[in-house]
Design a protein that fits this description.
By secondary structure, the chain is mostly helical. Helices cover 43% and strands 10% of the residues.
């Protein structure tokens, strides 16, 4: 249906869209989308072959304007440009080290190499779903694809808020199904075996704390004697120890790591990467390999704040556990005397024979060895935290007290960490039996 002509002598209202056929034979449309940074009207130009096409395009722009979802003027950014800007200038400075590492891997190893050439305003949910499928086919786990999905969703959510796109396509993309591993906390007899074995080891009290107090790995190996309140027999959790990635301190990071760049993909019969998929070749502008930089900085073992405000907590110790810590302190004092000038004074509660802090990787190896010597099934070190939370459930400790004890910021964590053990199931069955049939 042709458009109605405006009465002669009348004027189009300010800000109204206009459509006309130019001398070039094409149809043109102009839509006022708002105001530019300099205060002038933000007028967008459209050009189509037919009047119907330009009318549809004008209506679409007007719909975006009226809904408040207006894309910034100018050519849209590519996915590579946006993700690079988002990570380097928005995400990395505002999140913790481990979160930044996860974002970095998702952006530079998966998203940019596979989707970087797309425009942020034209990429579709299907592009992300194909990427997830490709990752699974290559042998990567569904959890890795989920991490990439969460990173992309966060990055494109920020692009939406800043007007680089009018929607977040990742919100519509479906990540692969993620099967959460069933966690079985240790039963009472297993806890007993681990405690007995741990107390025969050097620094064994470190694992006793994990099983009884549920302290995280970084919190435990980051404990200092100055945070032990001897008067009230309490332990203050405020910091944690992390191994962080080194950063370049040189002027040309790419050149600095030149001899370590991976130029070609691995051969089909690669035997070096058997536990996980072979890493891709380094990008042309690779600036990794900072651990080899002569001027490296910011890496190694670093003391940082605990995960959240709720994580900063004080724990009153059972008398038996407090006595174990004091006995451990006496043993460490003898080690300090034996080490003499080789001792590195850092006030660490659990330290190497020379006083230096424990390395997280070595600590994990110690945990695996402890499980083997105690004759206990294989489990993650973090499962000790699940065990401690479940013991509080067995003891009937109120949820609010459990939250403070474990350093949780919301009640949802109780569902995640507290589990129904075999002993609890047996106890429920016995209670039902006594109530219903033994009356």
């Amino acid at each position: 249906m042709p458009r109605k002509k405006r009465s002669e002598g009348t004027r189009r209202p300010n800000g109204a869209s206009s459509i006309y056929q130019g001398s070039d034979g094409k149809w043109h449309g102009w839509v006022t989308m708002g105001t530019r940074d300099d205060g002038k009207p933000d007028r967008r130009h459209l050009q189509r072959r037919t009047e119907a096409e330009v009318i549809d395009a004008v209506r679409e722009l007007e719909k975006q304007r009226d809904s408040g979802k207006v894309k910034k003027p100018g050519r849209a950014w590519t996915v590579e440009k946006w993700l690079t800007h988002w990570f380097e200038n928005i995400a990395a400075p505002s999140v913790r080290h481990k979160a930044a590492n996860a974002y970095r891997t998702a952006v530079y190893r998966h998203l940019i190499p596979n989707l970087g050439a797309h425009r942020v305003d034209r990429i579709e949910p299907e592009h992300f779903e194909k990427l997830y499928a490709k990752m699974l086919t290559s042998g990567l786990k569904a959890g890795t694809a989920h991490q990439v999905h969460r990173t992309a969703r966060t990055a494109f959510g920020e692009a939406l808020r800043r007007g680089h796109t009018v929607r977040n396509p990742v919100e519509l993309a479906k990540p692969p199904r993620l099967e959460e591993a069933e966690i079985e906390p240790f039963e009472a007899d297993e806890i007993g075996q681990l405690l007995v074995t741990a107390l025969s080891w050097r620094n064994g009290v470190r694992f006793v704390l994990a099983l009884t107090l549920g302290t995280r790995q970084g919190e435990t190996i980051g404990l200092k004697w100055s945070r032990l309140d001897r008067k009230h027999k309490a332990l203050r959790i405020a910091k944690q120890l992390q191994r962080q990635t080194w950063k370049h301190g040189c002027d040309n990071p790419h050149k600095c790591g030149a001899k370590y760049h991976k130029a070609n993909p691995c051969k089909e019969d690669c035997k070096r990467h058997q536990r996980k998929p072979c890493p891709p070749p380094c990008p042309p502008d690779c600036m990794s390999h900072a651990r080899w930089c002569p001027k490296r900085h910011g890496g190694g073992l670093v003391e940082v704040d605990v995960k959240s405000h709720a994580g900063k907590r004080g724990i009153v110790l059972p008398d038996r556990l407090y006595d174990l810590l004091i006995a451990h302190e006496e043993k460490q004092a003898k080690e300090r005397e034996l080490a003499g000038s080789e001792w590195h004074e850092g006030d660490w509660m659990f330290a190497q024979p020379n006083g230096k802090p424990l390395d997280p990787r070595r600590d994990l190896d110690e945990w695996k060895a402890l499980l083997e010597e105690a004759g206990v099934r294989e489990a993650r070190l973090h499962d000790a935290r699940h065990t401690a939370a479940t013991v509080l459930l067995v003891l009937g400790v109120p949820e609010r007290a459990v939250m403070e004890f474990m350093g949780w910021s919301n009640t949802a964590m109780a569902k995640r960490y507290q589990h129904i053990t075999g002993a609890l199931r047996r106890d429920i069955a016995d209670r039902l039996n006594g109530y219903l049939w033994e009356s």
